[in-house]
Amino acid sequence: MLVGLSPLNKKMKAFAGRAYTMRFIPAREDIDTYATLTTEPHINNLQWVGVEQVRPGEVVVIDSNRDPRAASMGNMLITRMLMRGARGVVTDGAFHDGTELSGMDFPIWSGGVTATTRLSYHHVADLQVPIGCAGVAIYPGDVIHGDGDNISVIPAHCAEEMANLCEVQDDLEAYLALRVQAGEKLWGLYPPSPRNPCQAPSLGHRRPPPHCRRSARHNRHGRCLRPRPEGTPMNANTHTQHPHETLIRRYFDACNAADYQALMSCFTPDAIHYFPPGLPEIPWRSADTISKKWIWCVENLGSQWTIEKVLVSHNSNEAVIEWTHWKRKFSTAQRGDEWYVFDETTGLIKEIRAYYAAPAVKDTAELPVVQGTHMGELVAFDYAGRGYNMRCK
């Protein structure tokens, strides 16, 4: 529970979404200047990079070190996140433009309102890393759930289980509340016990009658318990994205956008990227080198990438993906895999090992043509049948 924060919009509806984290450190006068507020990405304005990376269904959570002297952000950036499909924004500091924010149909939680802008006291140091907000540890991809009273954090790996438990408990309490309203005494009724004939099914008692049950996604106060991807049917199985997968997808978005600052934010400074033989100047060493190399590919090869499959290890800081690299200027594409190793402390990428479906032919013109593109891929593998992208989007 994030204690000490309150919603700016008192008519706010219940919400839930996955955490997109932003970490502040104290500002420095030689770095945090108005010159960083440019209309293009700036190395010392990571906050705007984060705003433009937020995905539909995410809740932006800001670690402001509980310092309300300067605003974490204001109406302009929050409006932009709303338009990008964010579910809400939370800070343990303050926001400015309180009047405008209080009138928005958008969940906004903070420790207060101030007129002072962020540059006075805050510098955005990291995106999508573990943070502390209001004294609570929050990892990228955790589920943030809020309503008009409270805001809480549920670890990503147990969010579905917790939602199921809460729904059963809430159905039960809604039914018992009706019995109290009908005049029954609390003795022997509440809290539920093995002697209470209206206990939850898991404890052997009958289910509350149908007219007392709530939606499988809302409790008796109408609070949404599970984040659901946009466009997903209410009865569809939902997938809580692991923080490692979230970071990988953010990394690919940054590659496709040729966004240096966003790329840098995905790696440890000493990250290394290994490749098969045949490429010049490999392996790529350092986050700076990796970022600049991919930007070169976008600018000179017309490169774009799609992620086809992602598997995340359940017992180590590792993941593996399948991807397609589309070189649009040459109408060619390459399939491959990458093995990721993540830093245990920061959660950032510290190593990538790339494996290509390398062609046996030397001339790409000899590769098979699939929908107008010479494809370097596994022979006789049914990419279309398995649901892989067959053209660059």
Percent helix:
10-25%
Q: What shape does the CA trace take?
A: globular
Characterize the largest beta sheet: strand count, sense, and whether it forms a barrel. Answer: 8 strands, mixed
Global structural class? alpha/beta
Strand content: 25-35%
Describe this protein's structure.
A hairpin with a 5-residue loop joins strand 13 (303-312) and strand 14. This protein has helices at 46-51, 75-83, 98-102, 159-181, 243-257, 260-264, 287-301, and strands at residues 6-7, 15-26, 58-63, 88-91, 108-110, 122-127, 131-133, 136-138, 143-146, 151-154, 267-274, 284-285, 303-312, 318-327, 332-342, 349-356, 369-370, 373-376. It has 7 helices and 18 strands. Strands 1, 2, 3, 4, 5, 6, 9 and 10 form an 8-stranded mixed sheet that branches. Strands 11, 12, 13, 14, 15, 16, 17 and 18 form an 8-stranded mixed sheet that branches. It has a two-stranded antiparallel sheet with strand order 7-8. The protein is an alpha/beta fold and 393 residues long. The protein is 20% helix and 26% strand.
